[in-house]
């Protein structure tokens, strides 16, 4: 038998006839029931992300939002943003704004919610209190809920007794069977009370989890997803101050907002039973659930602040790109079945399937995230990349201009060594610096020094003094290549024996990007005046003066002593 619930024509609840009870029963009646809820296959997909504005958006929350977004977009449905701010002491508008900002930065635009509106608002729980009270009263009238007048001291005493008896610390049910007269007496005295939900003692309930399978909940045993009713007890849905409890709010909100699929973290699994009982008591059909595994740290514990950065805002400030964060978060527990790991948001929407979400926890690997960010960074059209990095260099005080030929050439030369936008500062600073003394006195450079490096230096200084070298650099890459070829012939050197000495003498380093392009760029930087005075730039002219003053005899004869001095200096 299929019974449509009034006000929600898009859903259908299927009740097994032989166990179907009346929806309303008297105060002391505990019903037996067996109900299976299902959503009409033709119903529109509506999912929600419901963060609590008590802090920054954690990467785990961002992944949950992303999976909801991808599912909605892949099904042509709606992605709803709801703010769960019933924790009045910890919720702040600043945290809410930060969460909204992070979601917008990731590109997860919501169809309904704060700043957008919609037909199912308001979208902040703090603005929906009258609705919660209305449904709480409905449950009280039907007998699914009763008033509990127990004081905090009484409840603590119950916990102590349960502990002594080695029983679960659940409510004893003192007010579950109270006579109407007793209740009226307490009300007349103005005794504070909570609303407690009556947990059935018999029956069964099936919950469909799209990731973990269908769970059959029996009120004395369970299958697949484990809950035990004897550890649940009659639970509070409204506090004595009139504030609703989380599980009650969530159920009412999801039902009245016509949410078809609840995709959330597995830590909400224990809440599902309470919410399912409330769904049934109110006559609401349940949505489909999908409980996503936790994001784990490298030690396979739950990812937390002690493992480093965990919030989206931190990664944004560290220079990560939103498209890289989205790509990486999608792969934490999901894959398209191929070896491909590089996805744009549009490709993720096209390929995403909740059926391919993994049940096991996914380890957050910051090294892989950095690598992936580099892949996305280098996939940006060059003009945009140059603008992005150029603006970074100007804002950090390395350059006086954010665009132009020098910026374009520098980005082109350095981009392969940049995984984060912030890496570009170090890359450019390294190019502009000239740590020749430290390099010459290092163990790695000793074979180069001993291979008559002083002779190469003398010929290089001669090429500088004659204007021959700078004339070649003025001609660009072709001029440099022609000069190097001739210089090598003069010294009867080629390959590594030519280029390693030149790299050390001209750049002051043993390793780096293409040497010819580096030297040409250093030459241009000295001529154009684009480098800020505080950038620590050593021009080519200054480099040659440093080479002219080097004591090669000391370098060749007392290399270990100089090495030690350089180490202390560094």
Automatic annotation (TrEMBL):
Domain of life: Eukaryota
Predominant cellular place of this UniProt entry's protein: mitochondrion
CDD domains the record matches: GluRS_core
This enzyme's EC code(s): 6.1.1.17
Occurrences of domain Glutamyl/glutaminyl-tRNA synthetase class Ib catalytic (ranges): 45-371
GO CC list: chloroplast; mitochondrion
Enzyme class: ligase
Any one GO MF annotation of this record: zinc ion binding
InterPro entries for the chain: aa-tRNA-synth_I_codon-bd_sub2 (IPR020751), aa-tRNA-synth_I_CS (IPR001412), aa_tRNA-synth_I_cd-bd_sf (IPR008925), Glu-tRNA-ligase_bac/mito (IPR004527), Glu/Gln-tRNA-synth (IPR000924), Glu/Gln-tRNA-synth_Ib_cat-dom (IPR020058), GluQ/Sye (IPR049940), GluRS_core (IPR033910)
UniProt KW keywords: Aminoacyl-tRNA synthetase, ATP-binding, Chloroplast, Ligase, Mitochondrion, Nucleotide-binding, Plastid, Protein biosynthesis, Transit peptide
A GO BP entry: glutamyl-tRNA aminoacylation
Subcellular location: Mitochondrion; Plastid, Chloroplast
Signal peptide segment: none
Record bears the keyword Transit peptide: yes
Catalytically driven reaction(s): tRNA(Glu) + L-glutamate + ATP = L-glutamyl-tRNA(Glu) + AMP + diphosphate
PROSITE patterns noted in UniProt: AA_TRNA_LIGASE_I (PS00178)
HAMAP family, sorted: Glu_tRNA_synth_type1
Protein task: Catalyzes the attachment of glutamate to tRNA(Glu) in a two-step reaction: glutamate is first activated by ATP to form Glu-AMP and then transferred to the acceptor end of tRNA(Glu).
Annotated family: Belongs to the class-I aminoacyl-tRNA synthetase family. Glutamate--tRNA ligase type 1 subfamily.
NCBIfam families listed in its UniProt record: gltX_bact
Name recorded for this polypeptide: Glutamate--tRNA ligase, chloroplastic/mitochondrial
């Amino acid at each position: 038998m299929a019974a449509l619930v009034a006000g929600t024509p898009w859903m259908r609840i299927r009740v097994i006839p032989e166990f179907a009870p009346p929806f309303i029963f008297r105060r002391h009646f505990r019903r037996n029931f067996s109900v299976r809820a299902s959503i009409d296959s033709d119903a529109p997909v509506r999912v929600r992300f419901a963060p609590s504005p008590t802090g920054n958006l954690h990467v785990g929350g961002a992944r949950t939002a992303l999976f909801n977004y991808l599912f909605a977009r892949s099904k042509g449905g709606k992605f709803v943003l709801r703010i769960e701010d019933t924790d009045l002491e910890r919720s702040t508008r600043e945290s809410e704004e930060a969460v909204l900002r992070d979601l917008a930065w990731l590109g997860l635009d919501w169809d309904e919610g704060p700043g957008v509106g919609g037909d199912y608002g308001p979208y902040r729980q703090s603005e929906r209190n009258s609705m919660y009270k209305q449904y709480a009263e409905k449950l009280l009238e039907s007998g699914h809920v009763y008033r509990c007048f127990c004081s905090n001291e009484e409840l603590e005493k119950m916990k102590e007794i349960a502990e002594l008896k080695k029983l679960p610390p659940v409510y004893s049910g003192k007010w579950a069977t109270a006579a109407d007269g007793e209740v009226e007496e307490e009300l007349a005295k103005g005794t504070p009370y909570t609303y407690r939900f009556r947990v059935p003692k018999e029956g069964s309930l099936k919950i469909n989890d799209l990731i973990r399978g269908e769970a059959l909940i029996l009120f004395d045993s369970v299958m697949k997803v484990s809950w035990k009713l004897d550890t649940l007890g009659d639970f509070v849905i409204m506090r004595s101050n009139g504030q609703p409890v989380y599980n009650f709010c969530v159920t009412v909100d999801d039902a009245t907002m016509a949410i078809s699929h609840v995709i959330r973290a597995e830590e909400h699994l224990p809440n599902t039973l309470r919410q399912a009982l409330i769904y049934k008591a109110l006559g609401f059909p349940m949505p489909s659930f999908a409980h996503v595994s936790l994001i784990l740290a490298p030690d396979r514990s739950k990812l937390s602040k002690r493992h480093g950065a965990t919030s989206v805002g931190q990664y944004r400030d560290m220079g990560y790109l939103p498209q890289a964060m989205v790509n990486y978060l999608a792969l934490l527990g999901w894959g398209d079945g191929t070896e491909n790991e590089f996805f744009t948001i549009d490709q993720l929407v096209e390929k995403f399937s909740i059926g391919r979400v993994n049940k096991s926890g996914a380890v957050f690997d910051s090294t892989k995230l950095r690598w992936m960010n580099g892949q996305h960074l280098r996939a940006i059209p060059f003009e945009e990349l140059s603008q992005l990095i150029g603006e970074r260099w100007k804002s950090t005080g390395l350059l006086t201009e954010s665009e132009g030929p020098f910026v374009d050439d520098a980005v082109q030369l350095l981009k392969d060594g940049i995984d984060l936008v912030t890496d570009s500062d170090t890359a450019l600073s390294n190019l502009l610096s000239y740590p020749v003394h430290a390099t010459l006195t290092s163990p790695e450079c000793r074979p180069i020094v001993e291979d008559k490096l002083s002779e190469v230096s003398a010929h290089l200084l001669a090429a500088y003094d004659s204007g021959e070298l700078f004339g070649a650099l003025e001609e660009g890459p072709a001029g440099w290549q022609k000069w190097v070829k001739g210089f090598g012939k003069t010294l009867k050197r080629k390959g590594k024996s030519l280029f390693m000495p030149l790299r050390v003498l001209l750049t002051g380093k043993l390793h780096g990007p293409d040497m010819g392009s580096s030297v040409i760029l250093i030459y241009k930087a000295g001529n154009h005046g684009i480098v800020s005075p505080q950038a620590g730039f050593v021009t080519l002219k200054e480099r040659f003066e440093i080479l002219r003053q080097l004591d090669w005899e000391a370098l060749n004869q007392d290399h270990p002593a100089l090495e030690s001095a350089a180490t202390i200096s560094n």
